[in-house]
Amino acid sequence: MRIGELAARTGVSVRLLRYYEEQGLLEARRPEGGHRRYDEDAPAVVRNIRALLGAGLSTSAIRDVLPCVGGDGTVAPCMLEVLEQRLDLLDQQMLALGASRAALAGIVAAARREAEVVELNALVSA
């Protein structure tokens, strides 16, 4: 199938499909006419790429994982360790974000209290 048909079938822009190809995630043949031609499994490959991107994997990680992903989206056990490492990293990032949020919430609360004191002092002075 041509790139336009693949874009229509997957809802992914032609530009993004070209990017996936540049990143080594999607393969296209180029017959004599030079137009990209994709295999019939290309829509499943694109869906898998989108799912892995949605799970937070980088394109370089997806390039490593993608050969172990079936057309139905199942991942072979050989990639389990890589995915578990990514999951651990996400857990660490979530903890760090939670700590950052708590610190920022404390700063905002203190600033609100200070603003209320200033406002109250202005009312008493008037």
Plain-language structure description:
This protein is an all-alpha fold. The longest helix has 46 residues. The chain is elongated, with a radius of gyration of 25 Å. The N and C termini lie far apart (77 Å). The mean pLDDT is 90.
Question: Would you kindly provide a brief summary of this structure?
Answer:
This protein has 126 residues and is mainly alpha-helical. It has helices spanning 3-10, 14-22, 42-54, 59-65, 80-125.
- Which runs of at least 5 residues are low in confidence (pLDDT < 50)? none
Which structural class fits the helix and strand makeup?
mainly alpha
Strand content: under 5%
Number of strands: 0
Order of helices and strands: HHHHH
- Main sheet summary: none
Mean pLDDT: 90
Shape: elongated
What is the first-to-last residue Cα distance?
Answer: 77 Å
Give the number of helices.
Answer: 5
Helix content: 55-70%
How large is the radius of gyration? Answer: 25 Å
Q: Notable features of this structure?
A:
126 residues, mainly alpha, 5 helices, 66% helix, 0% strand
Map the helices and strands.
Blueprint: H1 3-10, H2 14-22, H3 42-54, H4 59-65, H5 80-125
